[in-house]
Amino acid sequence: MFKILKQVSDYAKDTFQAAKYIGEGLAVTFDHMGRRPVTVQYPYEKLIPSERFRGRIHFEFDKCIACEVCVRVCPINLPVVDWEFNKQIKKKELKHYSIDFGVCIFCGNCVEYCPTNCLSMTEEYELATYDRHELNYDSVALGRLPYKVTEDPMVTPLRELGYLPKGVIEPHDVPVGSQRSGKRPEELISE
Amino acid sequence: MNAGIDLRSSFIETLQDLGLPLGVSQAFWIPLPSILMIIGATVGVLVVVWLERKISAAAQQRIGPEFAGPLGVLQPVADGMKLVFKEDVVPAKADPWLFTLGPVLVVLPVFLSYLIIPFGQNLVITDLNVGIFLWISLSSIAPIGLLMSGYSSNNKYSLLGGLRAAAQSISYEIPLALAVLAIVMMSNSMSTIDIVHQQSGYGILGWNIWRQPVGFIIFWISALAECERLPFDLPEAEEELVAGYQTEYAGMKFGLFYVGSYVNLVLSALVFAILYLGGWEFPIPLDKLANWLGISETEAWLQIVTAALGVTMTILKAYFLIFIAILLRWTVPRVRIDQLLNLGWKFLLPVSLANLLITAALKLAFPVAFGG
Which of A66, A104, A110, B336 could form a disulfide bond with A70, CB atoms 3.0-4.6 angstroms apart? Predict the structure, then answer.
């Protein structure tokens, strides 16, 4: 008799606890409703990519010595280096160079190992096309520089979290002219 | 209690003054309330879909729809138009008859239930004496449609979803009916008008929510389960069942399910408002206030103001409940099927039975407060 009473009271206690937790959860959800949206309204607002951003690869045709290091360090031997040995000047002559960004994983090994620094990472990430073959960039396409987000009049550039001033976590309400937290490189050098 | 505005008789009288015979003017009136109610319900769905998207966005710190019309109010219309113009696909091995009949059977009873929703003293399509019972019985037709569409889709996810929907509806019908029964017992009537009248006179203090503190929670949980709202949206749990019984549906047939679920939500909120929140009653008793201010009850402008206030109050209460449902959606995680059935049979059913018995006892003990 007492055992069943205890069971009932335990069950009732559990029920009240569950109701309390649901109430607390509702308070959290309700509190979130009053906060500002944190989303970046993409085509109109864009985040500024960080300086280490690994975007589409840029290639300078004239610097390339056709050593094929980029091919060897690439996990899938992706870059296509088309060269011919010129007997008069006893040098390799680069004819074509291409990287297929539909296959590239943007690991940056080629950029890291290129002996003449003719490869570099850009901050371009909008690579959508209607046909995957359009992603196979030749040396001309690889030589184009992307449009900077900060210079696009259609776009409101927003800073990423690490580039916001101290105490600010929302890129929308950054005070004008404020600096990121910590010291700038030139300040560190002068110290 | 005065009769309030009688739109029907004044409409018929106006037509008769224009020279039409009595029968013709009555025939003109017949389709009007139903058409008005269907339009109202559909517009209500559009508003709820917009609210759902906006409130969900706010709860997740997003913006939500904002480009279709001011603040994105036309987004549900755009969604609807898209569904209307989509190809109506029937899977190759599906049963075409059952497949078509399923969504119709789900939507029709929900719209039919609007028959008994009063927005004011005379602002109701029919004041049936079995009013609230009609709603309960109509809501048990929907699982047949769900089962039908799940079975005819020839898809294991659809079938599982349909079976879950049927199991869920049947389990939660009983506590829902028992919670309503306690109210009916206190009101001595199943008519929705009488239920509201029984709560009137004392403003917010007279509402059933104070006399049925357990009942209204049971009713709200069961109503959410009946509507397949989020803590109980097992029949269409997308992580497990793709989209449940809706998996094979596209175009307008899917649109019917979509409209049906939201109309059902609005309907449940309205019924909750009528049963527990005093229907069209204002939180302060208006007729007492008018007497106190020395305004006659039969004054025309007062009647118009009270009628308009009544409609507004009903809708406001319903949308407040919908807001709570949406907030709950982003707060409470989905229950498992065994938890769902446990909650229904082992918790809600005994508690609602006890609630019914206690209500009966209180009615015998304090007939003044509990409607003797």
Answer: A110
- The share of chain A scoring above pLDDT 90, in percent, equals 39
Q: Which residues contact B190 (CB under 8 A, 6 or more apart)?
A: B129, B130, B131, B132, B133, B184
Q: Which of residues 21-80 of A touch B (CB under 8 A)?
A: 22, 25-26, 28-30, 32-33, 35-39, 41
CA atoms within 13 A on the CB side of B113: 26
Structure-token pair, residue B360: 């009966």
How close A35 comes to chain B (CA, Å)? 7
All residues of chain B having their beta carbon less than 8 Å from the beta carbon of residue A29 are 59, 327, 330-331
Q: Could you tell me the pLDDT band of residue B372, with boundaries at 50, 70 and 90?
A: low
Q: What is the pLDDT of residues A46-75, one digit of tens each?
A: 888 888 899 999 999 999 998 999 999 999
Which of the four pLDDT bands, split at 50, 70 and 90, describes residue A100? very high
Model's pTM, two decimal places?
Answer: 0.81
Residue A169 sits at the chain B interface (C-beta within 8 Å): no
Mean pLDDT of B214-222: 89
- Integer Cα distance of A106 and B258 in angstroms: 43
Contact state of A39 with B62 under an 8 Å Cβ cutoff: yes
State the best of B217, B327, B351 to mutate against chain A, taking most chain A CBs within 10 Å: B327
